[in-house]
Amino acid sequence: MLLFCLSGVSQAADDLFTSRIEPILQNHCLKCHNGERHEGELDLTTREGFLKGGDEGPAIVPNKPDDSRLLKKIAGIKPKMPKEGKSLTAAQSAELRTWIEQGAPWPAGLKLIPASLKNRSGPDFWAWQPLKKPAVPAITKNPEWIRNPVDAFITAKRDEKGLTASKEADRRTLIRRLTFNLHGMAPTPEEVEAFVNDADSSAYEKVIDRLLASPRYGERWARHWLDVVHFADTHGYDKDQRRPHAWPYRDYVIRSLNDDKPYSLFIKEQIAGDVLYPGIVDAMVATGFVTAGPWDLVGHTELKDDSTDKKITQLLDRDDMLSNVASTFLSVTAYCARCHDHKFDPIPQKDYYQLNAVFAGIDRGNRPYGEAADLAAQRMRLNTQKKELTQTGNKLNAAMAQRKSPGLKKMEEQLEALNQQLNTLTLPPEAVSPTNGYHSQICQTPDVVKWVQIDLGKPMPFDGIRLLPARPTDFKDSPGFGFPQRFKVEISDDEQFFLAETITDHTKDDFPNPADNPVVVLQSGNAKKSARFVRLTATRLWLRSNDFIFALAEMQVASGDKNIGLGAKVTALDTIEAGRWSTRHLVDGFSSRTKLAEWPALAAAPGESKEAQHNRRRTELQAEIAKIEKERQTLKSALIDPAEKASLEKATVDLAEVEKQLKALPPQRVFYGPLPRKPRPVHLLHRGEVTDPRDEASPGALSIMQNLNADFKLANSSDEGARRAALATWLTDPKNALARRSIVNRIWHYHFGKGIVDTPNDFGYNGGRPTHPELLDWLASEFLENGESLKKLHKLIVSSATYRQASVANAEYEKIDADNRLLWRASRRRLDAESLRDTVLSISGKLDLTMYGPGYDLFNFKDDHSPGYDYAGFSLKEHPQTWRRTIYRFAVRSVPNPFLECLDCADPSSSTAVRNTTNTALQALAVLNDPFIIQHSRHLAARLSTASPEASKQIQMLYALILGRAPAVEEVAAMQEYVSKHGLANACRMLLNTNEFMFVE
Fold first, then answer.
1. Could you read off the pLDDT of 28-44 as tens digits, one per residue?
2. Whole-model pTM?
3. φ and ψ of 961, to 5 deg
4. Domain co-membership, 444 together with 386
5. Are residues 688 and 726 in the same domain?
């Protein structure tokens, strides 16, 4: 039950309401009349709702029970209430009457919730409280064990259960633990021995400082961050296309952690760095956080704007963005309020949609960054000139196209009539096309070169080429779908078309859209040509909605009356292979609508069939249309004003020069991130349905933080950047306790295996409760007071006596605290996937420490509309570039790496705050038999053999590299025997498979 103020309410009235009235309303009324569902427009969660009433008027009239509809309805006046469940008893009705007679008293500020939702958090819940730094507990028992305040808080809780701390771990264990924690790799034998033999009292602190100062630290802890923000290098969903420019964000995270960037700045840059810090490269690239998650390529590029499905796609995209913010920075499940008020936390649906509105002005895509000012200015100037020249050319073309004469108008009327006749000719229902044709990849600009070609298998004579425009079933109102505005058709015997003959060239002027009419490039009956390949090259694409494509239903190549292009091999610069679209559908004998004759005969044979008659009539109409169209073009040319023609030719020449200069500029650096646009309107959706929008939502944050204003009240709500900037400022406000508790808890989690709250992404009612709430708030306060330095926080935690404990079992203590939540010892932890792989690379001597840049593939890639990622056929021997750290690999959402997945690597399709940690037989088999392990066991064996020819020294070095210690005498003897039988490489594999290596300690 929510807490409320009792001022102004007598104790007797309060007792009546709390003990009798509230349960009646919760159990019988609120199921249908609550904040989310209010049938008859009646909301009975507040006193104001009773007084306002619904469709029939007020539910109660205070002091006048006989005038109150509530009592009349429960007494039986139709519709009798409650509709569902048992009727109220006479005693309950009497209690409601008494309540109304007393004026319907109601505790101030109370908002009722249905009985089914009473188990939930309220304003008094621990996570929503302002941050107050608690006093450090005074420890009188074993005070000498305390190294810093962290230990005092841990000891105070442990003492309550009668538990004592474990002894400190030995130095070999400590440096291994520290190095894996801070670097994600094992220490080298030299580092271990240096620490073990360092007599300096500050030796441990020196190791911490060295590890934190190393660039390996940023690589390790960036991996944790990328897990949480569900970063990957592909889009995800069913068409999991590559995202080749996502990596700059990954590099930004590594650099920021290595630079110990203040956490608030780290947040601000990721939410709105391009707005708050314009001109700073890292601040721009940081916004890759907003677009780090999955993206539905098909939904965003192939669905029509304003359709219901497109609106759902856009809603889900914004949901991913806001969920990433809420989970990552606040550890709250705001996404649960999309369809209704949050069932367990005080997050109303209104808050969800105002947070959703923050991202309403964002599309995703490649965005330029980091270009020198003079070069950027030059590129902008040329692009502006290109746009102006293109507009000039389009206007001149339009002006000339609109100029008509009586003769020209008559011809266009004839053409329209003939086309209508052509369109009325239909084939039988059984000949309906099962395919659409060929479809290129989608582009954001029109002037892009695309091509598709057919291979006749060998040079063959032909005398006709026809292009059939597409008209897919899902674009019924788009005749001539995808037909390029500018194009050329070439033939060649060379697949690369270095030597080619141009059959027709429409690359200088826009070609009128042919609608559903075939474009005859080479008329049947003309002089014969001979070639093996026929290529259509589009140089200006067709405007679809807000993007540009090239599509074609069919390409026919005729030799006499036979279509020799039918079933030919088709290749293309790029293609969409999905559903009714495919390169093979370009030569399948179907347009987007009907089955096609092999080639329209010019004359009917005796006793011709209906289909033949149909084809003959189509051919006759098409020939007549072509004839009139030719005459029309001649007449149209005569109407062209010489001055306009000269202006158009000049604009065309100037445009070609501008494009030449643009191509001469160095390639522009881009990153995958948010593309600002005018914000789309966002409405609160009843039950989350895009078809049932209610009030428009203004950008804001979560009212769960009572000491922060959740309404941004922007001066210009159409300013997309201002929305994100306001959110960044709200998140980093010093009064935002959730932001600091969240990050402090995450750091603790990665050092100890479990957070103080064991659900790092959920501090709400359904999440875990803090085992040490005072310590959590003390750490958050200390973090805030010390400039939000993550490195200082790391050092504070790992310097504690709590962190330095040995992992010693205690059967009695395990009965009291089996999960070791009170930290009476160090918990044993298995190596995560990346740590194991990076350590194997390191000890084999093959680790490449090159930092930053595009990721490397651990798979064979097949570029397709639904790409192929083949791990099984990938040969490690041929790719030494894969010896970089695992964080730099190209991460695929839909097809995980089998070796890393087996070792519980995170799934980048969703936020992973806590990785699963399993111990399975499959893992043992993988670490013994995976090609990566086999390859680097051989490299390690070669390293050992090069270092020394003596078997005993090789084994000494092997143990030092893999286990960080010297082998015992009996281990040397046993290993020598094993090596003599199975070889040194197999001995390396065996030692890598031991628990002593697989576990940190």
1. 887 788 766 677 788 88
2. 0.72
3. -70, -45
4. no
5. yes
